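Repro case for the chain-ordering regression, as requested:
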Amino acid sequence: MKRLLKKKGRRVGLIAVFAIAAFLGPARGYAKAEAAEGKSECIACHTDVKNLVSLISEIEKIRPELGKSAQAPGEG
Amino acid sequence: MEPYEKIYVKPSFLKTGHGQIACETCHNGDPKDPNWKTAHRGIVRDPTFPDADKVCGECHENIAFTARNSLHYTLAPFDRVIKARANKKAKGVLEKVCQAKEKHCTACHASCGQCHVSRPDYVQGGFLAGHLFEKTPCMHTTCGSCHNGRVYSEFTGANDGYPADVHYNKEEMTCMNCHTGKEIHSDATGVATRFSLPERPRCERCHPDVVSKKPKTNSHTIHRDKVACQVCHAVANKNCFNCHVGTDKDGLACSKSGETRMVFKIGLNPNKTKDRPYNYVVLRHPPADPGLFDFYVKDGLSDFDKLPTWKLDTPHNIQRITPQNKTCNNCHGNASLFLQKKDVTDWEQKANAGVVVPKAKIPKPIIPKPAIRPDDPLKSPPSPLY
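-- result from build under test --
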């Protein structure tokens, strides 16, 4: 009887381990996939040179305040 | 630097500690918005200024706590000097001077991010290395961006005909070898100028013999507390005159500097302290002028002559042998090395009264003692036997 109970206990334990693994596995995979796919638009854009090059002319149009006067010959 | 490089984030950054923090945590914006125009609404380009504590202080609490009051961060001495020279009598003038100061002078501050992540705003930013955080930034890109006008070009020998600093040339030292993080991040509250910062570089840290009781060389024994190290070991530095600032037709800040001269001038030490007890120091003429803010307000700096216009300086072009230290009389009796009344314009006479060297204080030439011949019985020293 004791043996039977022990066997059952092991089975329950194994099932629990598999259940947890089955739950966490995809979740971890999802997190990794999210990072790999660049779910953040900031990362997706700022790590893509081609994209930045094509956007740069647009960016410069809306950020003129960063410009420096051509009449600034002074030495720092 | 290509414009895209300024904002390109290296994928390797994402593997670093800082790269684990979500972009919007520091920069705001909407990371889920695929339209870059709307995604950047409310974006904070430099989250490390004006509050270093907000983002950097989360992890680097001690550094951020002092760095927010550091000289690079606050440029506090600018404020003190400009206010001392400003016209405080005429109504509304000081406000206009302060506005001009904010636009032109205070804009030169450097935040945590402008040294460790991107180039300073003064040179329109741009990542140093794809948003990687540089613990010790490259001096050519970071320090050189703001200090290239004078000390950086002196240090690296960029001025034609003038040698680079021996520490750079021979020892391959960088700015940060002397100007350590401890100094750069130190709290400068109440500090009058960079020369009175307790953490500032000191020659004796690496050259202790010079200030020891028995220095190895005679010249150090003789001059130790009388002249600043640079008086003997620096060469001509860049002096600028007549700088004026204004706003161009596009509303951008602009400046126009006048003459630039490479000269070497020794002056009297206007502020002797325990740390700087010298009688003589090296001087430099900075570009500021009473008409500096004329574009914004006339007569804004009416008290310009309240402070010397030839100022204490520590040129960054140190040499072991210099034109003035080759022989004693290259300096002694050589009046041209010393700032005299005739070197100073009329309106600057009063301002520089404390640093101009009067004729009586120019060291007299050394007259060499005649050689004593051992065969001369009258002049030969007594024999130790007697």
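Ordering looks correct now. The interface with chain A takes residues 3-4, 7-11, 14, 22-24, 27, 29-34, 36-37, 39, 108, 122, 124-125, 131, 146-150, 238, 240, 243, 248, 250, 252-257, 260, 287 of chain B (CB under 8 Å).
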